[in-house]
Write a structure and sequence with these properties.
single chain; about 500 residues; mainly alpha
C-alpha cells in the first residue's frame, strides 16, 4: 500500500486530548479514506452524551407522531375496544423493547453509525445496499412529512390572518403560493437544525419531548371535559372472539412494522449513548411505558369523540381543528409542527445523511450530506408523491418491505454468527485479507439471503393471495431473512473482538 491508501486522522491533540501512540500504526494498518471520515469513525467514550433521558425523548416524540395516532385510532374504527387497543399496543411494545435494545447495544459497543455497522454482514462495499435502501425510504418520507406539517402551518397562518387564504389559489408544480411559503419555511428550519449535527438533534428532541407530552395530555383532558368524562370503549360493532384476538396480534405486528425502519438504524443514535444502562432505561420509559400512555390518549380521543359526535375522529388534528379559541388552536397547531419536525429529524433525516456520507466519505461530512438530503427531499416534489397512490403503494412500500429481511440478516450476523466479536478497525480496511472484505468488499452470502428473503417480502406485500397474513409481513420477512442467512453464513471465523479506540473521534457537533 502507498501513503495515498491511508486516511489522515485529525490530531486529537488539537482537541485537548493526547494523541494515542498507536494511531499512526492503526492508519498504516490499512484504514481507507474511501471508508472513513470523522462522521463515520467510531465515537470516543468521553464524547458520548446521549443519556437515558435523551433516548426517552426520542420515543416521546416519535411514538406520538400524527401518523401513529391515525393508525391507532383506525383500530377503534375497525371495531377494537379500548382495552383491545391497549392490549395490542402492549404486545407490540414488548417486542419493540427487545428488538430496539438488541439493535441499540450494537451502536453502544462499536460506536459506529448504521452504514458502517452494515459492513459487518454485507462487506465494506456491500454495506452501501442496506444504507441506501434505508436512506431512500427515509428521504422520501422526510419530504412528505414536511409537506404535511406545512399544511398545519397554513391553518395557523389563516387563523391569524384570514386574508392569507387568497394565497391558496392557483398552483405552481402542485403547490399554491401559501403552500410554497409554508413548505420552504419548514424545510429551511429543519435544514438549519440538522446542519449542526447529531448533538443539535439531541437537544431539539429533549426540548420537544415535554411539549408533545403536555400537548396530548391537554387534548385528552379537553375531550374528556367535552364528553362530560364519559367515553365509549368501543364503537357500535365491536369485534369479539377469534376475530378480536387476530386483530390484536395483527395490530401488535403492524405496530412493530411501523418501527421497522428505526430498529434497523437505531445504532445511529446509540453510538452516542453513555452506556447500555442508558439504552435500557431510555427504552423502558420510552417504549412500554410511553406507548401505553399513547394508547390511553388514543382511547380517550377516539372514545370521547365517539361519545360527543357519534363517530370516531381520524386524527388528533380533527380535535385541534374543533378548538373554538383561536389562541389555543394556534398553540396546539404549533405543538403539532414541533412534533412533526422532531419525528422527521430522527426518523427521516439522519439515515439518508449517514448513507450519503458513507457513499462519498472523502467529499461529504454530516453537514454537507444533510443539506444534500434536504435538497433531494425538495427536488422530488414530495406532495406529488403523497398524492400518488402508485408511488406510495409500490415504491415506498416496496422499499419498506426489504427492511425486515435486512434486520434479520444483520441481527443474526452480529449476535449469532460473530457473537459480538467485532474488529472495529477492520470495518475501515479495504485490504484483501480484511475481516470484512469478503469478496471484493461484498459478502455474497448476505446478498443472496437478502435476494431470497426480499423476494418473499415483496410477495407478502403485493400478492393478493397473501393479504391474510399481510399484517404479519414484517415479522415473516425478518424471520425469513434470519433463517436463510443462518443457513448460508460462514461461521468458520476466526472473529476478533478489537475496539476502535485508536481511530475513534470525539464528536464536535
Amino acid at each position: 500500500m502507498t501513503a495515498e491508501d491511508y486516511v489522515h486522522i485529525p490530531s486529537r491533540a488539537s482537541e485537548g486530548l493526547a494523541e494515542p501512540p498507536s494511531a499512526l500504526v492503526a492508519v498504516q494498518a490499512g484504514i481507507s479514506p474511501r471508508l472513513y471520515n470523522n462522521d463515520l469513525a467510531p465515537t470516543t467514550r468521553e464524547g458520548r452524551h446521549w443519556s437515558a433521558y435523551s433516548i426517552f425523548t426520542l420515543w416521546a416524540n416519535d411514538v406520538h407522531s400524527l401518523g401513529n395516532y391515525v393508525w391507532a385510532i383506525g383500530l377503534f374504527s375497525l371495531g377494537m375496544s379500548g382495552g383491545a387497543i391497549l392490549g395490542s399496543l402492549a404486545f407490540g411494545a414488548l417486542f419493540l423493547f427487545l428488538l430496539l435494545s438488541l439493535s441499540g447495544f450494537m451502536g453502544e459497543k462499536t460506536g459506529v453509525p448504521f452504514p458502517v455497522m452494515s459492513r459487518i454482514a454485507f462487506g465494506v462495499h456491500g454495506a452501501q445496499i442496506p444504507a441506501l435502501l434505508r436512506g431512500g425510504v427515509a428521504i422520501a418520507w422526510f419530504g412528505i412529512q414536511t409537506y404535511l406539517a406545512s399544511q398545519v402551518l397554513q391553518v395557523i397562518i389563516i387563523a391569524l390572518a384570514p386574508g392569507a387564504a387568497g394565497l391558496q389559489e392557483g398552483s405552481f408544480l402542485g403547490l399554491s403560493a401559501l403552500g410554497w411559503i409554508t413548505f420552504l419555511a419548514l424545510w429551511v428550519l429543519q435544514s438549519i437544525i440538522v446542519s449542526y449535527g447529531m448533538e443539535m438533534i439531541r437537544k431539539y428532541e429533549a426540548f420537544a419531548g415535554p411539549i408533545i407530552l403536555a400537548t396530548f395530555v391537554a387534548l385528552a383532558v379537553w375531550v374528556l371535559i367535552q364528553a362530560d368524562f364519559q367515553i365509549s370503549w368501543s364503537n357500535d360493532a365491536p369485534l369479539t372472539g377469534a376475530d378480536l384476538w387476530l386483530h390484536m396480534l395483527g395490530g401488535a405486528s403492524a405496530w412493530v412494522a411501523i418501527y421497522g425502519t428505526f430498529v434497523l438504524n437505531f445504532c445511529d443514535f446509540t453510538r452516542g449513548a453513555k452506556s447500555k444502562k442508558a439504552i435500557i432505561k431510555g427504552n423502558f420509559w420510552g417504549i412500554p411505558i410511553n406507548m401505553l400512555f399513547f394508547g390511553c390518549v388514543v382511547v380517550v380521543l377516539a372514545g370521547g369523540s365517539f361519545t360527543i359526535n357519534g363517530e370516531a375522529i381520524t386524527s388528533p388534528a380533527d380535535v385541534v381543528a374543533a378548538i373554538p379559541n383561536t389562541l389555543l388552536l394556534v398553540l396546539a397547531s404549533l405543538a403539532l409542527i414541533v412534533l412533526t419536525i422532531a419525528v422527521n429529524l430522527m426518523a427521516n433525516f439522519v439515515a439518508p445523511t449517514y448513507a450519503l456520507t458513507n457513499l462519498f466519505p472523502k467529499h461529504l461530512n454530516f453537514r454537507r450530506a444533510a443539506l444534500i438530503s434536504a435538497v433531494i427531499g425538495l427536488a422530488i416534489l414530495p406532495w406529488n408523491l403523497y398524492n400518488s397512490p402508485v408511488v406510495i403503494g409500490i415504491f415506498l412500500n416496496g422499499l419498506g418491505a426489504l427492511l425486515g429481511p435486512l434486520f434479520g440478516i444483520i441481527m443474526v450476523d452480529y449476535w449469532l454468527v460473530k457473537k459480538q466479536r467485532i474488529n472495529v478497525p477492520e470495518l475501515y480496511s479495504e485490504h484483501v485479507t480484511g475481516e470484512y472484505y469478503y469478496q471484493r468488499g461484498f459478502n455474497p452470502r448476505a446478498i443472496t439471503a437478502l435476494v431470497i428473503s426480499g423476494a418473499a417480502a415483496l410477495m407478502l406485500t403485493f400478492v393478493p393471495a397473501f393479504q391474510v397474513v399481510s399484517q404479519f409481513s414484517w415479522f415473516l420477512a425478518a424471520g425469513l431473512g434470519a433463517i436463510v442467512y443462518s443457513v448460508l453464513a460462514d461461521r468458520r471465523g476466526p472473529f476478533h473482538d478489537v475496539e476502535g479506540t485508536e481511530i475513534a473521534v470525539t464528536p464536535t457537533h
